[in-house]
Specification:
This protein is mainly alpha-helical. It has 9 helices and 5 strands, in the order αββαααβββααααα. The protein has one domain. The structure holds zinc ion.
Length: 283
């Protein structure tokens, strides 16, 4: 059998190989250069989305949401909106310089069936009136808004956008290498990458949320009451059927409540100090 012909001189790899090498090295360098620490929690993470892009997306999402619920947004002089504005501004003040540079907006949407709140990048926060099943007092409202404001301050949406882009980049590399990218690969990426990240963000926002409440003089223990009621409501709605933790974007309620109780104990001294400071400024 004759020996195989030698490869042509000067061209040992196909051209796409060099392209692949270039984008892999460039992408990896960009990824590591983007690392930063989260405020409050000091977690190291890549931040692949600029502040300007994040703010633009936040503005656009807020406008789209307000358009979607047009006619169901409570007017600014409504009692609940006034309370929300008061609580929101008080908590945002505790977020330091970063929070003060944002244009905060707080809206209430009349949707009795929606027991939820949401925050968009740049400081846009909405709550739905269905929350009143679980939120009965000002400090309980502060617990919910503290959580949402924490998502904004920790730039979780921007982190999530970067993480989605990174996953798509990884799939693109797989496809270039001729490896299969199908529904199963996408599902695996979601379960092993996106959802654990989302659960981590929820826990982080819970912890920072009670910290902001304590600093603002709201009893941080209110968060535990709110989540216990939410857990009861959720159980009623699902008729006892619960989603396994690894499939969920949010941590399970028992885990969340246990974490909150630990965080409340950590920030209690801040709450006591803040109550005392308020008393002395009054007398
Ligand atoms: Zn959240």
């Amino acid at each position: 059998m004759p020996p195989p012909p030698p490869p042509p001189k000067g061209r040992r790899f196909p051209p796409y190989f060099y392209f692949l090498g270039f984008i892999s090295i460039g992408g990896t360098a960009y990824y590591f250069a983007s690392f930063e620490e989260t405020p409050y929690t000091g977690r190291k993470r890549p931040m692949l989305v600029s502040r300007a892009t994040e703010l633009q997306i936040g503005e656009a999402s807020n406008k789209a949401l307000l358009r979607q619920f047009q006619g169901r947004i409570l007017p600014p002089d409504h009692r609940t909106v006034r309370l929300l504005q008061k609580v929101g501004k008080k908590l945002a003040q505790e977020g330091g310089a970063d929070a003060q540079n944002l244009h905060w907006e707080f809206h209430v949407i009349a949707e009795e069936d929606v027991m939820n709140a949401a925050a968009m990048p740049g400081g846009k926060v909405v709550i739905f009136t269905g929350l009143k099943k679980c939120v009965h007092t000002e400090e309980e409202l502060a617990a919910v808004i503290g959580h949402e404001i924490s998502h904004v301050l920790l730039r979780h949406s921007a982190e999530q956008m970067g993480s989605t882009a990174l996953m798509n980049y990884f799939f693109f590399l797989l496809a270039l290498l001729g490896l299969p990218v199908n529904e199963l690969t996408l599902l695996l990426g979601d379960l092993t990458w996106q959802r654990p990240n989302s659960r981590l963000h929820e826990k982080e926002a819970d912890a920072v949320g009670v910290l902001l409440c304590a600093k603002a003089g709201y009893n941080p223990a209110a968060a535990v009451r709110v989540f216990e009621r939410m857990a009861d409501e959720e159980l009623k709605r699902s008729k006892g059927v619960t989603v396994p933790g690894f499939l969920s974007t949010h941590p399970a309620f028992p885990e969340r409540i246990a974490l909150l109780k630990r965080e409340v104990e950590k920030v209690r001294p801040l709450y006591e100090a803040s109550k005392e400071a308020a008393f002395f400024s009054f007398t």
